[in-house]
Amino acid sequence: MDIFARLKAAASSDWRSYVDHDFVRRMGAGTLPQEAFRYYLVQDYLFLIQFARAYALAIYKGRNLADMRAAKAGLCAILDLEMDLHVRLCGRWGLSPEAIESAPEHQATVSYTRFVLDCGMAGDLLDLHVALAPCIIGYAEIGRDLAPDGVEALAGHPYRDWIGEYAGAAYQQVAADARSHLDDLAARAMTERRFAELAALFAKASRLEAAFWQMALNETGA
Ligand SMILES: Cc1ncc(C[n+]2csc(CCO)c2C)c(N)n1
């Protein structure tokens, strides 16, 4: 079992509350109201701005070039790939990046992003990557679950672009690389005594992910 599988097993109910959230299921079924999805997407854009800072912090906290390059890949995935998806989707509804950026951050967005940033500020690179893991690896799992027959089978699905982004080969590779980098970091920096602390960080980040989906349902009455 790699470190990610161990963390997931130690936090299994929090993990399920995130990847099997009602928002995710309804998105997969195509029954999620578009208003809830839009609310999510605007907050997610604000979320990504803070996550880009967390990856920049991971570059700073790296003690060697390989760690710094792995963090740079995460930063580029956000700035060059993921945010483009949001700009493209929001653009269809007439929302410009400036308009999204001026939206106020919801408390759920603040809680999650600042928690991750604090894990990195107060801890070392392993703490930070464990706090980031539910986000980066969880979305790959969700993408795969929502596209069981591959991305091509999503033609006509209302959330095809979103699911296709995370189910697609490029993103699956980003997540697989993050997973093996996390395993490598743990082999270098983890002691068994530390595992319980890391599992608590991982569980909390998973709950904050679930709360992020729930925010969009609550705020739109979906
Ligand atoms: C609430 C929320 N959680 C996870 C992601 C996914 N994500 C955030 S940063 C990153 C790394 C590289 O792009 C990935 C995949 C998201 N967008 N929103």
Automatic annotation (TrEMBL):
Group of enzyme by EC: hydrolase
One Pfam entry name: TENA_THI-4
Pathway: Cofactor biosynthesis; thiamine diphosphate biosynthesis
Catalytic reaction list: 4-amino-5-aminomethyl-2-methylpyrimidine + H2O = 4-amino-5-hydroxymethyl-2-methylpyrimidine + NH4(+); thiamine + H2O = 5-(2-hydroxyethyl)-4-methylthiazole + 4-amino-5-hydroxymethyl-2-methylpyrimidine + H(+)
Keyword annotations: Hydrolase, Thiamine biosynthesis
Presence of the UniProt keyword Hydrolase in the record: yes
Family: Belongs to the TenA family.
PANTHER family: BIFUNCTIONAL TH2 PROTEIN (PTHR43198), SI:CH1073-67J19.1-RELATED (PTHR43198:SF2)
Name used for this protein in its record: Aminopyrimidine aminohydrolase
Gene: tenA
